[in-house]
Amino acid sequence: MITSTKSLPLGPGYEGVRGKKIRYRDAFNSTLRAEMELDPDVFLIGEDISGGFDKDTLEPLDAWGGPFAATKGLIQDFGPERVRDAPISEAGFIGAAIGAALTGLRPVVDVMYFDFITVAYDQLLSNAAKSRYMFAGQTKVPLTLFARSGAGTGHAAQHSESFYSMLAHIPGLKVVVPSDPYSCKGLLAASIRDDDPVFVVNDKKLINLEGFVPDQSYTIQLGKGRYLSRGDDVTLIGMSYTSVVCQEASKILLEDGINAEVIDMLSLSPFDEEIIIESVKKTNRVVIVDEDTPRASMASEFAAIISDKAFDYLDAPVKRVTAPHTPVPYNKNLEEAFMPDANDVVATVKSIVD
Amino acid sequence: MKKNKSENEKKSVSISPKKLRWLYSSMYRIRRFEETMLEQTFKGNAMGVTHPSDGQEAGPVGICAHLTDKDWIGSTHRGHGHCIAKGLETNRMMAEIMGRSTGQCHGKGGSMHIADFSKGMLGANAIVGASIPLAVGAALTSKYKNNEKKSVAVAFFGDGATSQGVLHESMNLSSIWKLPVIFACENNGYAEATPSWYAVSTDDIASRAEGYGIPGLQVDGMDVFSVYDAAEQAVKRARSGEGPTFLEIKTYRYHGHFHADDPKKYRKQEEEDYFKSKDCLISFEERVTESGLMTSEDLNEIRNEIEEEIKKATDFALTSPMPDHDELYKDVYVEYSNSLLGLR
User: Fold this and answer.
1) How far is A139 from chain B (nearest CA, A)?
2) Is B285 helix (H, G, I), strand (E, B) or coil?
3) Are B172 and A102 inside 8 Å of each other by CB?
4) How many CB atoms lie within 10 A of CB B118?
5) pLDDT at site B148
6) Burial, A62: exposed, middle or buried (Cβ in 10 Å; 0-12, 13-18, 19+)?
7) Each residue of B225-268: pLDDT tens digit?
8) Are strands A19-23 and A210-214 parallel, antiparallel or unpaired?
9) What rounded mean pLDDT belongs to chain B?
10) What residues 318-337 of chain B have any CB closer than 8 A to a CB of chain A?
11) Predicted pLDDT at B301
12) Is A344 buried (19+), middle (13-18) or exposed (0-12) by CB count in 10 A?
């Protein structure tokens, strides 16, 4: 794996490491299991994370095993105290998870769809993110939350958001956006072991994606991005699923003789400013690709950083390829038009490359 | 529903002399802290708004009398009484309100965010109702750790919070999971300026607990013995794993919502007179001296000690340094790799 020359290695590379090709969802599930085995204070809480109970024996059925089977099979080994099914009351059980974190546990919360965090936004903003600061370091909040984001699966306006910016905006909270099974494992493990509240955003379009994952335990340092490919002509910056989009675009661009360098941000708060600046100083052109809506977005933040710190190196305006300033539509054609795709990226690159 | 109709006259006798002394000194400490804090606020020495709780002392004191440092409480914007009842030091509290570096939270929390985790105080919280699920979470930790310490959690909140959804979610969660929680609703009749007869759909808030399978009791919150007895049962229930209890503590806020609020604009004088005639300190003094449990000299001695303590706390706060500029950037995260500086 290639990392920023100024960055520390992100963990084991792909070469000579024992591992296998698995799906993103399986990497997620097995990492949860590994972290629960490692630390008895780690427990899961969320709606339908086992799902269903036998009315006679009162035993959990694991009928769902969590949305997208993220937690399937865990209740058999860890029991209902450590895989705690919650009623549909996000503010209540996320608040309770924060209370548990404040008093010594390490809760991992399944928020189900990313959009649902807004139901508990006060708990996240006012309690999870601020307790350490308000109380001058008397406490910490080792809380991990995860949810499914993104359009493209026909889940429509209230189950398809990608508003990472609404979370990255909050001092006290960290946000990570894995883009493949390898980063899913490393970032989830790092998030659970981190002493601050971390939100792990999983794009639904990644969940069945396959990729190589080393067998050994490893973490990816929060706040570090990585190069997915190297090139000299233009920098493409992706996050979560748009890192996949950027890779697709770079292959198309290569056919036209344009060598794109692809950065996968991996973390949005903190984020790897160095890798962005390092790359833009070399390529002098940049396109940021974000499935979030454009106003006050991560794309806007990265653009501002580049214009501030690499202005003299730019040969073209900083370009952003984002979703439109609309909710996510249901109709397949409209939904596809909503999401930035490789063709959008290619067209934007061509508008700034001579 | 069971109502606690103060048959506590007899029971109060069984309270140990040491505990009786603690009850009185804690209530008097809160009273004098709040009065002094208000004076200092009007002198401009507090750095923001303050929400005094004088009049309501019997609630937190009657409940926290049954708690140790291993038990947790969640609190509100009107939280000084909860802090003092839970054993926080008045000098560090006063310093916090004055924004000093010696404050409980280094001057960064202020009146509405005083916490002391070493005393089991999860923090005052300025979002109405928001600390309730935190107490539920603390109770979850207690259960998760097999309740080794048998610690319990008390969620303090006002009548205003009973209209917040998160209270109802918290009651449901703690009931289905049988968590060791005590819901302590301090019904002082007003949410800011809005009376509870207008804003709350029942005049029997405790009855709402029934809908969640939680026993609910109404308690005379001007009488510390009533609160003490009800809380004793609630804490015992929680410690023995029987689940949550809801206490509606009928009390009164002697001052307005915040320091500069004049409650005469929205409250009747006779109402204030009525509650002041039931004042928790006066009724305590009468009860213990008439029954010979304490003498007026005993009480006088306690009052003098407290006066001295509050005076020292005020001097401590006034003479303490302001926080260093660096404090602005401390404790946002345990660890963070980006700069926290603003752009300027």
Assistant:
1) 7
2) helix
3) no
4) 10
5) 57
6) buried
7) 999 999 999 999 999 999 999 999 999 999 999 999 999 999 99
8) antiparallel
9) 95
10) 327, 330-337
11) 98
12) middle
- Does residue B136 belong to the interface with chain A, where contact is any CB pair within 8 Å? yes
CATH number corresponding to B5-327: 3.40.50.970
Q: Closest Cα partner for B246 from B191, B174, B165, B190?
A: B174
Can you give the residue ranges of every domain in chain B?
5-327
Predicted confidence band of residue B344 (pLDDT cuts 50, 70, 90): confident
pLDDT at residue B149, as a whole number: 62
Residue B322, pLDDT above cutoff 50: yes
By annotation, the residues of A acting in catalysis are 90, 159
Q: What residues of A are in contact with residue B173 (Cβ under 8 Å)?
A: 86-87, 89, 92-93, 96
The reported pLDDT for the residue numbered A7 is 35
Angle between helices B17-42 and B296-319 (to 10 degrees): 40
CA distance A265 to A263: 6
pLDDT above 70: percentage of residues in chain B: 95
Q: Say which range, A313-317, A349-353, B1-5, B141-145, has the weakest mean pLDDT.
A: B1-5
Query: Contacts of residue A81 in chain B, CB cutoff 8 Å?
Result: 143-144
> Which regions in chain A score pLDDT beneath 50?
1-12
A95/B133 CB distance under 8 A: yes
Domains of chain A, start order: 21-219 (3.40.50.970), 226-352 (3.40.50.920)
- Residue of B93, B144, B156 best to disrupt the A interface, most CBs of A under 10 A: B144
Q: Are B109 and B115 in contact (CB under 8 A)?
A: yes
Question: Three-class SS of residue B314?
Answer: helix
Q: Say if the Cβ atoms of A122 and B176 lie within 8 Å.
A: no
Predicted TM-score of the model (pTM): 0.95
* Nearest CB to A135 within list B123, B176, B327: B123
* B96-103 mean pLDDT: 98
State the distance between the two ends of chain B, measured CA to CA, in whole angstroms.
61
Q: Is A260 within 8 Å of A231 (Cβ atoms)? A: yes
- Tell me the pLDDT tens digit for each residue of B190-223: 999 999 999 999 999 999 999 999 999 999 999 9
